[in-house]
Give the backbone structure.
Amino acid sequence: MPDFNTFDFMITEDNEVMLLLYARNTAPEKPSVKLNYDAHNIILTRNQEDILTLENVEDKIFDNLQEDNSLLVCEIDPTDNEEESEIVYTYEAVIID
């Protein structure tokens, strides 16, 4: 089974940031993110019960998010065979202060 603490960021050709992570057991509901520049982490609130802290986020991710109002999130089915992984949830999480 994959490590649920694993995540990755992609920067598109349009300099939009996308967060990739394994899907959780609950659906996202009113998702939001808080950027902690000094601590180099991002707090993703998927719903009231599911809050994730993404540690050791690179400066280039923060740089690309400075002018954005939201972060695109893509949650993938946690399967042992990466080639068979399917997207479970895709959503925009609002960036909050």
Summary: The two ends are 35 Å apart (CA to CA).
